[in-house]
Design brief:
By secondary structure, the protein is of the alpha/beta class. Helix content is 41%, strand content 15%. It has 20 helices and 16 strands. Helix 10 packs parallel to helix 12, helix 12 crosses helix 19 and helix 19 packs antiparallel against helix 20. The chain is globular.
Length: 442
Amino acid sequence: MRDGNEATAPGRWNRRGLLAAAAALPAAALLPGCSGERRRRSSGGRITLRFQSLAWQRDSLKANEQLVAEWNAHHPDIQVRYVQGAWATVHDQLLTSFEGGEAPDIIHDASDDLADFAYGGDLADLTALLPPRLRQDIPRHSWETATFNGRVYGVPFLQEPRVLIANRAKLGRSGVRLPTPERPWTWEEFAEAARRLTRGSDYGVAWPLKEPVSATLNLALSTGGRLFHRRPDGKVEVRFDAVDQVVPRTIHDQVNVDRSASRTTLGMGGSDTLPGFFAGRYAMVPLGFSYRQQIVQQAPEGFDWTVLPAPRGTSTAQGVSPQTLSIAEDCPYKEEAMAFIDFLLRPPNMVRLALGDWLLPTGQEALRDPALRVAKHDWATGAALAGSLRSAPAQSVRGYPEWKDKIATPGLQEYYSGAIGLAALRKRVVRDGNLVLARYQR
C-alpha cells in the first residue's frame, strides 16, 4: 500500500536526472490544485498551507476534513487547504512533486516511506520545531520510526498492530487455548492450533501475502529477527540468521507441510480473504488491526469473531511503520505548519483520527481514552498491544523499496508457494539484496 518506488539508481542527483522531464511540467500537472499561493502572503497577510492527506475510509475522511475546517475557523491568517492523496501512488507522486518544487507543505505518509526523502533533503528536520507537549506525549520507540541520522523527519501518530482475526465458534470447538495479550501463543502453539483447526477442506489459517515483505519482517521481530544490520562504518547489510527464519519457515510449513494454511490465499490481499473467512473456509486470518471495520461492515448477521494477539517468540515485539506527518523542506512557513500538526494531534483530535481509521494512536494520553479501551470490536485487545510495537526493521534503510520489490517480494512468494527452498531464499535475499543496498551506500 505504501511502497511504489521503482527507482533503479540511488541518490537525489540521480533522481533529478530520471525525472528531469517531469520537473519541466507545469506545476498543475505535478499535483492537482497546486499553485504559487503558498509562496507568498496575500495582501491581507494570510498564509495558505497545503495539507496532503491519505485518509480514504469514510470516517477517516470525515475526521480529517472536520479538523481542517475547525483549524481554519480559528486561524483566519493561517489557512490550510486539504489535498487528497492516495496510498497506492504516494511515493511516486511525492518524488515527482519534490523534484518539481511543488510538494505539499504538510505531508501525510508512513514512516517506512520517509528514508529516501529524508536523506535526500526533501523533508524538513523537525527536531527543533517539535512542541514539548508533542515530543513528550509520543514515546521514544515511536519517534525512532521517523528518525534518521538523529534527526526527526516525521511525527508518528497512528499505528497498526498485526493480529489474528479468528472465528470464535471454530476456536471453541477445537479446544485450543485462547491466547490473550498477556499470554499469547508461541509460534509453535500457533502452528499446533492451526493444525487442530484444519478440518477437511477447511483450513486453520489463511495467509494473505500478496505483499509478503512487511508482514514477514515485522512479525519476525518477535523472534529477534532484524534482517538489516548496521555495521560500525554505518553501512547496512542483510543477514538471514536463524532468528530471521522462524516466521517464514512457519508460514512455509503451514502451506506445504502441515497443509493447515490455504495455498490459494498467498496471492491475495487481506480483503480478498474475508468472504472465505465468513464462509468458514479459514478459522484464522492474520491481518492488520484496522480490518475490523470491514468485518463489522461485511460479516453476515450472527457471525461471531474475535481478535487474538499475534504469536510471540522471545518477546511480544512486532515492527510497525506508523502513519506520519512531515513538512516539506521548501515550505516557507514551517513554524505555522508545525502549529497545524500540533493542533491535529492534540489528544482528543488524535482519538478522532484513530477511531476514524480503526487504528491506535501513538500518543499516550490519547491511548488512555476510554473510547479506545472498550471490549466492543476488541478495541481493548489492540490497546493492550500498543506497548509491544517497535520500529520496523527496514525503517532507516536506504534502497529498501527496491530491495523489497525486486528481491524480497518475489523470493518470499516463491518460498511460501514451495517453488524454492530456504537455502535458495537466503541466497537471494542476502547476496542479491546486499548488491542492491550497496548502490545506495556508496
